[in-house]
């Protein structure tokens, strides 16, 4: 996002930022959350600088830039490249890992196991590996699931869910969340909150799992369930699957979150994101002896020496998104401003 932080190509550190950003995206694809976060923070710092940072020493003096990242900044300035980035580009096993991590539901452990077993292509997996049903679908629809969904199509998927749910029970509300609510031009998937004023979680679950989802399957709109908390967890509120518009053959990833009214505010914050914004607002809650999760904001949380929580705390607010910001003392941010 070149607009964020006043960064333009005129920024004296533009080239450094560009290369660090590429490295960061690589780590993100590799599901290396720590390095991704460290790079993102370092990049944000660099974007704010008005002079060119040329030495490791200068870089390390800035906030959120540790010694290793500082060395990389110096390397980029001196050589106009980053060996580590070049190496990952050329490493064929890195490419395989990246390929496997693009499969829905495949994490680092699983992807590395496949590599250990000698598999190198999606076809290897299909013909030789023992796959779960979800992985099979993830491979069959690899290209579908790995391309962005235009905003208008996200809307069209959302409308089908809204219309179907409205016919089942017109008190229900379905809202498209995630990057769509932040105003993104395209999205990785379609995230939806399903709720009904006054309804218990049990009621929501019955309507969604026993009526809505089967009906959407029957209509040919839903194509697969990939992860659902239905069978194993009676308090489960999630459904992950795939949907497809009539006359199309492209499958899209669809996520439902079932939310009782009294948790709506916290769920709105959680499901709007982005993930980095969520991390930072949760950390802020923590610093104030509170705790924010997707159900609510809690106060008087007691923590042990290693930061582990000793009690659940007392619910302060769950219903209203605005009120949660207020209690935390954070100025209100519109969804499109919640990009870190
Ligand atoms: N979320 C989070 N932490 C995660 C995953 C998700 O806080 N590890 C929250 C914030 C996200 C929201 O859930 O914005 C939806 O998750 P997605 O993975 O669908 O991400 P986005 O919708 O933000 O982006 P994309 O367009 O890639 O789907
Ligand atoms: Mg999303
Ligand atoms: Mn999602």
From TrEMBL:
It comes from the Eukaryota. Residues 11-339 form the DNA-directed DNA polymerase X domain. It is found in: Nucleus. The active site is at 72 (nucleophile). Belongs to the DNA polymerase type-X family. This is DNA-directed DNA polymerase. It comes from Cucurbitaria berberidis CBS 394.84. The chain holds residues 435 to 774 of 774 of the full protein.
């Amino acid at each position: 996002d070149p607009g964020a932080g006043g960064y333009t190509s005129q920024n004296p550190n533009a080239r450094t930022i560009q290369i660090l950003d590429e490295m960061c995206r690589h780590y993100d694809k590799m599901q290396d959350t720590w390095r991704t976060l460290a790079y993102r923070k370092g990049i944000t710092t660099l974007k704010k600088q008005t002079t060119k940072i040329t030495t490791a020493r200068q870089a390390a003096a800035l906030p959120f830039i540790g010694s290793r990242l500082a060395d990389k900044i110096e390397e980029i300035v001196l050589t106009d490249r980053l060996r580590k980035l070049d190496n990952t580009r050329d490493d064929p096993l890195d490419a395989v890992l990246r390929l496997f991590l693009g499969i829905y539901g495949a994490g680092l452990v699983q992807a590395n196991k496949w590599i250990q077993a000698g598999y190198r292509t999606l076809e290897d997996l299909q013909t030789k590996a023992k796959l779960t049903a979800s992985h099979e679908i993830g491979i069959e629809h690899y290209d579908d699931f790995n391309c962005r969904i235009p905003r208008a199509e996200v809307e069209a998927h959302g409308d089908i869910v809204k219309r179907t749910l409205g016919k089942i029970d017109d008190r229900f509300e379905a809202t498209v969340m995630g990057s769509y609510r932040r105003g993104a031009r395209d999205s990785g998937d379609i995230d939806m909150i399903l709720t009904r004023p006054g309804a218990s979680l049990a009621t929501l679950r019955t309507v969604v799992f026993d009526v809505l989802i089967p009906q959407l399957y029957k209509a040919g709109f839903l194509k697969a369930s990939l992860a659902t908390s239905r069978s194993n967890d009676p308090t489960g509120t999630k459904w992950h699957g795939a949907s497809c518009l009539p006359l199309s053959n492209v499958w899209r990833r669809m996520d439902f979150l079932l939310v009782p009214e009294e948790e709506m505010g916290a769920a709105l914050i959680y499901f709007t994101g982005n993930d980095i914004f969520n991390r930072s607002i949760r950390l802020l809650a923590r610093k104030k002896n509170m705790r924010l999760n997707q159900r609510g904001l809690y106060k008087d949380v007691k923590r042990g020496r290693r930061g582990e929580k000793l009690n659940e705390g007392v619910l302060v607010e769950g219903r209203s998104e605005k009120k949660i910001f207020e209690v935390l003392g954070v100025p209100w941010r519109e969804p499109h401003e919640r990009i870190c």
